[in-house]
Design brief:
With about 130 residues, the protein is mainly alpha-helical. It has eight helices and no strands. It has a single domain, classed as Tetratricopeptide repeat domain (Serine Threonine Protein Phosphatase 5, Tetratricopeptide repeat, Alpha Horseshoe).
Length: about 130
């Protein structure tokens, strides 16, 4: 079972009505039945980040990165989740990996500089985003 447009709508309605567990359940069912469903993985990861669960989100985004190794979004999202989880060195590696797919992403460059600063790599942050 892949995530259908109706499932996406239902999950979004649940989330906007404050029924986050119901939305999460929809995404998790889709991922359980199709672990490489990139849309379900990404939406689940975003929901986990929005509910302040960056460690769980990082696991989901890591799965998304493995399911779509050539795509920018999962690797970048993994970096953001790792940074929010307090793992700036791992975040740097993930964001650098994302930049291999989209080297001109201003958002990713900015996030890389932030992760480098959080890791105490001030010079790297200045070079990345002067």
């Amino acid at each position: 079972m892949s995530l259908s447009p109706d499932m996406v709508r239902a999950a979004a309605q649940h989330a906007s009505a404050g029924r986050v567990r119901d939305a999460e359940s929809i995404y998790r069912r889709a991922v359980a039945s199709n672990p490489s469903d990139i849309q379900a993985l990404m939406l689940l990861g975003v929901l986990l980040l929005q509910t302040n669960r960056p460690q769980e989100a990082a696991v989901v985004f890591d799965d998304a990165t493995k399911a779509a190794p050539d795509r920018f979004e999962p690797a970048h999202a993994l970096g953001m989740a790792l940074r929010r989880a307090g793992k700036p060195l791992e975040a740097i590696a993930a964001i650098q990996s994302a930049l291999l797919r989209a080297s001109h992403s201003a958002e990713a460059l900015s996030n890389l500089a932030g992760a480098e600063a959080a890791a105490g790599q001030r010079n790297g942050a200045i070079e990345t985003y002067p």
